[in-house]
Amino acid sequence: MTDRIPPVVKPDQVEMPEDVATDRSCQSPARRSFLTTAGIGATAAAAAAMGPALLVSGRAEADGSSDDEGSRADRAFDARVQAAKQERSVPVPRQIHNGDEARYDNYIGNFSQGLPHNSLGEVDPNAYAALLTAVRSGDPSDFANIPHGGTVKLTNPQAGLAFTLQGTDVGQVTIPPSPTLASAERAGEMVEDYWMALTRDVPFSQYGNEPLTAAAIADLNRLSDFRGPKAGGLVTAGTLYRGTTPGDLIGPFVSQFFLNAVAFGTLGIKQIYNTYLPGQDYCTDYASWLAVQNGQGPFPANVVSGTSYIKNGRDLGAFVHSDIPFQEYLVAAQFLLAKAPLNPGNPYLTSKNQAGLISFGSGHIQNLLGEVTQAALKAMWHQKWFVHRTLRPLAYGGLVHNTLTGAAKYPIQSDVLNSAAISHIVGKYGTYLLPAAYPEGGPQHPSYGEGHSSVAGACVTVLKAFFNEAFVLPNPVVPSDDGQSLLPYTGADAALITVGGELNKLAHNIGLGRDIAGVHWRADARQGLLLGEKIAISVLRDQRLTFNEPFQGFTFTKFDGTTITV
Length: 566
What we know:
With 566 residues, this protein is mainly alpha-helical. The chain has a domain at 184-565: Vanadium-containing Chloroperoxidase, domain 2. 39% of the residues lie in helices and 5% in strands. It contains 17 helices and ten strands. The chain has a two-stranded parallel sheet. Strands 3-4 form a two-stranded antiparallel sheet. The two termini are 40 Å apart. The model is unreliable at 1-13 and 20-61 (pLDDT under 50).
């Protein structure tokens, strides 16, 4: 193992707020060892010796030889060197977490699910110390020594140390600190998660028209810090549980890409999904909640109760429970390839005798979704395990429960403790715990940021780069309240439903669908999208070096509404 590339260097860049900066126990590695100074020098010298890159192949002679022996290999090498230098020039960012790990010596602000816990659900400090040892050293043997509280394994922490050979490496991207445990923003997110759980079975079309979602809207408007979308400064039926990017508030709650039939070759698919049993929630009693914190499986499976178009939060939570990582974006790609025009910058739109396939066509688009998915997940796993290690909402619900029952006293901001959501929760379940959509509670990796959203951000960015975002989708539909049919959508904004807006909505449907299931925070979804977007842009930038076609760049709209050309 002497030739093994070290996964990390000594931690020198993960930072924290000034109030806890003197305690270095919560720092974790960020700077990567890929392309060391010596390696950069060698590749730069090789590139200088070769001169400018020529990315067309050498002319082949009749006997199969090239008129420029080795030149194709040299140009391929040069393109790779240019991509490596391009990515190495990306500044190494400061990796800053929220400081909770050093702020609380019982680690109540951090993810510890699957490790051993005491009766309050507080992690064994020695077990958490073993986790910190592993993330600081990167040594596989240290990861193997992290204690188990039960039978459920941690989910792939070492994936966050894998290098990427396309796009920006994981140590050169970051997301801002997660909201702190005691903040009003975190409390506001928890109130939203409580209401999402309480309203899982309400059809999206009925938001604001029935008592439970009407109460949710009123309660969210009383919060001192809520970062969800608003209309006229208020949460409304049209903004409830939606995203904040262009197009999110237009049309039905569910994106058109979740509803329309598509074809995969000769296989026709209606988007009718298995649904979970209405009214069935989990981890609402203290014993099952504690078992989840300790990872004491095995846990039962959700009860499937028929099929449906996605009509409510429970259906959406079921989808994001067992989906293939880039599944719905591949479905969206198939729909767009059949129904929508390509991005105006596609070089084959002006070709009289050629069409794209492996480059700038269906093969390029479909395969690229998988490429950016893998890169985005590696980057997010680095943030989850090696920078932030943020607790999940289910664990926060235990802090709320123990605080309100007097079993312990935790620094929970009063907005959540005084919310109407809390009254509804305890009245229905007899505890203050967050009702989970899944028997296992949530996955065995830290909450911040969200893996599903990082994939959403990356894949949606790819689709916006290849298709005409301004194209208005014809004949929009909406699911019936029982989910058994699709109805024409006739809202006043039907003519405003565009490819770009519905792709943004699709990304938020999936990201916030994980919130509705009780496993994430709104901030997780928001920052996941932005990280995924950044990764996709870097992959597109690298790929530009490989094309033979005359090409002016990928032009599309980012999640913040600005236009970029890559």
